[in-house]
Give the backbone structure.
Amino acid sequence: MHLELYQKKAFSMNSSKRNPQYINITKKEAWQIVLKAKDISNQKTDQKSYLIKILSKKKIIQCTFSKEKKRIISRNFESKNISMNILEMYLKIIFNDNTEPYFIAHLAQSLDGFIATRKGESKYISSKDNLEHIHLLRCISDVIMVGSETVKKDDPKLTARLVKGKNPMRIILDKDNKISDKFMVFSNKDDLGFKITSTKIKTQKSNVFSLPLKKGHFKSNDIIQLLKKLNKKIIFVEGGGSVISNFYKNNMLNQLQVCICPIILGDGKSSFVIKAPMKIEDIEFNEISYHSMGEDILCNLTLIP
């Protein structure tokens, strides 16, 4: 099915459920609902349902999200710009019932499975809608985590500037201490740039955490325990492909989002660096949902219940 036809069909299905009493909200107002939900989750975590309410242009916009049913159970709005499924996707992340840190990873790839060219060029293979989605994920996360190679090649800011939300803590996995303070993840005025290095690296800097290595990698449990000590609950693993692959292989990811972009690179850096399963039937996901992101399709995979 062509994407345009798919979008029209999805829009038609959404339209058929419209209530004339609903308030039509903009994408910006939808983002405000999500960010308000994040504020609520920081204050209350033991409720069965959450009333999310904002005031916009003298209008009260509200919905109730059931943590038990993992969906919106009541609302007084609709939107032509964002589907309820996408809105629920964000609320499910925010109101997850994990006692451990909740890990979500995202990558954008071409139709033929590459996240970048051989030279490492990757800006920007995904649509503006997906870029906004990434920035909203940053807003609702407590920590953004990336590898040192991503910082060296792209020098990203890792801020939430596209949706005007709060910047989360940024942690760079830099076992060999290769990333200097000149990179933009550290130069932002919010002072939320940190990194994790090997315990073999001696430093007095206050923005450096030290963890031991096992076979050249940080141990999963050590990372989890550090995040728990920092009281960080939602962790967004943003890149690169090898880092996401390691988190996936170590069963650390609760959600994996793969954005399929309508381009063919022909060659480049593969999305995943993992050992192939013995059998196709061994591949299993708990839940899969698909969301339109402009010209892209976002595959949202639930890995750990």
